[in-house]
């Protein structure tokens, strides 16, 4: 656990952490505007005269205020605790706060239940709003290819030129490298899983690899990186494997980058060394007696 905390890559400051928590609260509260407005009308009712509040028993007297208060206090204390921990060691990332959304939604639902049930029209509007929110939230993810975007491009390149070589770049090539123990193994597993799905071979290059990787003589050589947003081209050119490449290293390579990763394409190197397997194959062919 100490090693994980020491190597954690998160760098969220106090203001950014407060903003992230606020964003989660806002987005969770406004995810269904009908429910939010219904809950707001109940809250406003608390500021009215007591006699006016009693006129609508379902909107005020039947709300489980003890439950709502307990959930609200728990959410507040959890947020303060997270901010305090984040000051000692940054741990807050917005997507890690997703567990707050059900709590906020439950609070709104508890307050808004009576107004929503009071009118069939309001309830239908609530259902329509929920369907629209779910669709709008899910639609971008349906088109988010993540690792598949780069992998599909690699598969297309291999189909066009079968001797294309593919190397996956390990995350320890990033400087500074900060990740939890086991991250290298998980990253390699991800590369191999996706490569197997798209039916192409892949070899992993780590920071400790100082030997020059074999490059293709007839087809491009691809260097594939995923989930490595801090890796820039200067770091990559200075990596031991890049400096060991024949000729001018990565000079002349072209870059394709998407939301999660990139592909660095090295043009064919006709003067590149043959692989040992191909050398043996050519040697055995040259020694084979000619058929009569």
Using brief descriptors, characterize the structure shown.
5 strands; 2 domains; single chain; alpha/beta; 53% helix; disordered N terminus; five-stranded mixed beta sheet; 292 residues; 12 helices
Helix content: 40-55%
Series of secondary-structure elements, N-terminal to C-terminal: HHHHHHHHEHEEHHEEH
Using DSSP, what is the number of strands? 5
The oligomerization state is single chain
Summarize the biggest pleated sheet. Answer: 5 strands, mixed
Overall pLDDT metric: 80
Molecular structure report:
By secondary structure, the chain is an alpha/beta fold. The protein folds into two domains: 2-140, no CATH class; 147-277, no CATH class. The protein contains twelve helices and five strands. The chain has helices spanning 2-7, 14-29, 33-45, 50-54, 65-88, 100-118, 120-142, 147-160, 183-197, 233-237, 240-243, 276-287; strands spanning 165-169, 203-205, 221-226, 254-257, 261-266. The chain has a five-stranded mixed β-sheet, covered by helices on one side. The protein is elongated, with a radius of gyration of 29 Å.
């Amino acid at each position: 656990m100490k090693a994980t905390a020491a190597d954690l890559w998160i760098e969220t400051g106090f203001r950014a952490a407060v903003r992230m928590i606020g964003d989660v609260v806002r987005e969770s509260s406004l995810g269904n505007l009908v429910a939010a407005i219904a809950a707001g009308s109940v809250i406003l009712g608390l500021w009215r005269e007591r006699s006016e509040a009693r006129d609508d028993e379902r909107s005020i007297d039947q709300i489980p205020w003890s439950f709502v208060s307990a959930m609200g206090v728990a959410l507040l204390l959890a947020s303060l605790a997270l901010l305090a921990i984040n000051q000692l060691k940054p741990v807050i990332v917005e997507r890690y706060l997703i567990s707050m959304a059900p709590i906020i939604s439950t609070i709104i639902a508890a307050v808004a239940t009576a107004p929503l049930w009071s009118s069939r029209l309001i309830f239908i509007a609530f259902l329509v709003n929920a369907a629209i929110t779910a669709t709008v939230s899910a639609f971008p993810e349906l088109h988010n290819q993540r690792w598949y975007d780069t992998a599909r491009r690699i598969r297309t390149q291999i189909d066009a030129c079968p001797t294309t070589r593919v190397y996956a770049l390990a995350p320890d090539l990033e400087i500074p490298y900060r990740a939890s123990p086991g991250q290298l193994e998980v990253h390699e597993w991800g590369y191999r899983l996706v490569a197997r799905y798209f039916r192409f071979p892949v070899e992993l290059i780590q920071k400790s690899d100082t030997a020059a990787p074999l490059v293709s003589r007839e087809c491009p050589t691809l260097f594939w990186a995923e989930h490595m947003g801090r890796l820039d081209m200067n770091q990559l050119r200075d990596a031991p494997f890049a400096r060991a490449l024949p000729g001018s290293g990565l000079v002349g390579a072209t870059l394709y980058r998407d939301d999660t990763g990139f592909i660095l394409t090295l043009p064919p190197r006709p003067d590149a060394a043959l692989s040992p397997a191909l050398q043996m194959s050519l040697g055995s062919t040259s020694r084979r007696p000619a058929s009569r």
